[in-house]
Amino acid sequence: MGDAPDAGMDAVQRRLMFEDECILVDENDRVVGHDTKYNCHLWEKVESGNMLHRAFSVFLFNSKYELLLQQRSATKVTFPLVWTNTCCSHPLFRDSELIEENVLGVRNAAQRKLLDELGIPAEDVPVDQFFPLGRILYKAPSDGKWGEHELDYLLFIVRDVNVNPNPDEAADVKYVNRDQLRELLRKADAGEEGLKLSPWFRLVVDNFLFKWWDHVEKGTLNEAADMKTIHKLT
């Protein structure tokens, strides 16, 4: 007999992969269906079929305008132990996370996952405090078997929060200022300390992050928002 499709998978990640239903969309972000998180991240399915799905990436800054980063846990199926922005996940195919008005469905999902992954209470991150700044579309392999093909909503929020990371989701967390992030980028580019960054985080860093950071500090995030454009990045 061959290996079961989830052989070797951590129990928590297995449950999420088979129970969570991602929102399938076309390249214009119109909902076309849903499928399991497992199928949406199998690279052979990504390459052969329409597994483009909605995702979000949260960038949470404290009142000192430092960005909270997380290192994904070793048991994550895609991109284990890479450093990335505060929280990266998917709105699910459920009524509360399909609401498109004011990006409320994605905001609801972000609040849910900040609690799941980092133990940040919902009251610390009210849904109306997330600033949706843009959308990117990207595709990236992880390890040959797994990968991503996502239409990713970029959400910024400035709040001082209580953080209690879930070890099933995050191996480590830390706040960085701009210079510290640039040093992380340098180390990742040089291959120092085995440090790796997630592909979506690197795309946001290279295309948007530092100019948007200026708006974080000035309190002018509304001026940076462009939710009409879907940026196709590689």
Structure write-up:
With 234 residues, the protein is an alpha+beta fold. 31% of the residues lie in helices and 27% in strands. The protein has helices at 11-19, 37-41, 43-48, 104-118, 178-190, 199-218, 221-224, and strands spanning 21-25, 31-36, 53-61, 67-72, 83-84, 87-89, 131-141, 147-158, 170-176, 230-232. Strands 6-3-8-7-10 form a five-stranded mixed β-sheet, sandwiched between helices. A three-stranded antiparallel β-sheet has the order 5-4-9. A hairpin with a 5-residue loop joins strand 7 and strand 8 (147-158). The longest helix has 20 residues, at 199-218. It starts with 10 loop residues before the first helix and ends with a strand. The model is unreliable at 1-5 (pLDDT under 50).
Write a concise keyword list for the protein shown above.
234 residues, alpha+beta, 5-stranded mixed β-sheet, 3-stranded antiparallel β-sheet, 27% strand, disordered N terminus
Topology:
Layout: H1 11-19, E1 21-25, E2 31-36, H2 37-41, H3 43-48, E3 53-61, E4 67-72, E5 83-84, E6 87-89, H4 104-118, E7 131-141, E8 147-158, E9 170-176, H5 178-190, H6 199-218, H7 221-224, E10 230-232
Parallel strand pairs: 3-8, 7-10
Antiparallel strand pairs: 1-2, 3-6, 4-5, 4-9, 7-8
